[in-house]
């Protein structure tokens, strides 16, 4: 009788599952989270002693932000953080990734300009999170370098490694008893290229076209070193070192258009995944990327490669300098070999043309930079598992912008999220150590050069109202269900 009952139950759940979709269960303790960044949400750009950052200056240059907007007020989370933390709690989340504004803590970027009000603000945010049972994940640098340091050369000046270390040390000591998870940098690949070249989309501080061939490599080099020194300090200092320190890398998944393009596709993978991960997980920049840039540099008549070299000591510091790999995934791109490098934001110097396949689900406006290709996330997790000896991965961002006409009924976002969450589950079932998934973003906010024209929140913000009223979109409910069940029911 019992066996019959079990059989019927099993059969029934199978039938129901087929109706409603496949169930993707997540491991116990899987960390569901959502994310924001200081300049994008805080506003209060000149309040309570905050110093200027490179973004405050950049948004005031004509023609840089598509709708001429700024983050001066944005979602006003500086004043409304308690409300925002309530939204996180309402979704059932136990984790939140956000960033510190360096110039709110050190107004000019150095310890001499310590701003107690800024320090107090982050204590209040952390206390509010902890009182809601939410674990903070803090990004130390999410692109808003203090302008005072930019005036001294910013990330192009080797001294920035020391400036960053002073800032990281202060944060580790001041907030270390409240923060268990630290992320040194957000997407160094985007900051070094968009921020210091400007051939593609342009970010602060803004770069010269003439510098495109070398500046991103120098900035990236210094960001990696700053990361390594911070990591070593954290784990080498008594009283600290109880938590985890990682880095968040933005990775594009390249797909060869045909068999003939596979070699170039591998090189694009060097410029996308390996550039900022190989030094940490495999001790140095990838060989093919080094050889390619050495070849180009020689052809250009230079005495040294445009890609800087690490000293043996620096390689020691870098090697193994992450307790987890933070992965931001948004898109895949098709790769075709091309003799003249075209406008190719993620391929950099690889001789390739890259584009979004028309076969993938469109998201956002026409010609948006996102189309949905969840298999790319699966593919990346497979590569990371195999190449890097299966490190702990934290998905630190995944999400998409609003699609016009949907407003609060954001069904395209739900399709995007569902597909990608299913992809994470599939990778886990193949052995990937994915510790958690972080949805970008909690609330609508200032989307860099796109201003307020591309909104990524699962809560809408009424930017026209003085109250900056938050309203849940349908996707927040969808995500809350996944979180509550620790499982996704999905047709894909
Ligand atoms: C932004 O400002 C520029 C002038 O600097 C103007 O030409 C353009 O129309 C403005 N765009 C919007 C969307 O307001
Ligand atoms: C302000 O916004 C919050 C949500 O963000 C809302 O609950 C509240 O009713 C709003 N107040 C006014 C006066 O609109």
Automatic annotation (TrEMBL):
Family: Belongs to the glycosyl hydrolase 1 family.
Protein's UniProt keywords contain 4Fe-4S: no
UniProt-recorded name of the protein: Uncharacterized protein
InterPro entries per UniProt: GH, GH_1_N_CS, Glyco_hydro_1
GO MF: beta-glucosidase activity
SUPFAM superfamilies in the cross-refs: (Trans)glycosidases
Domain of life: Eukaryota
Keywords recorded for this protein, A-Z: Glycosidase, Hydrolase, Signal
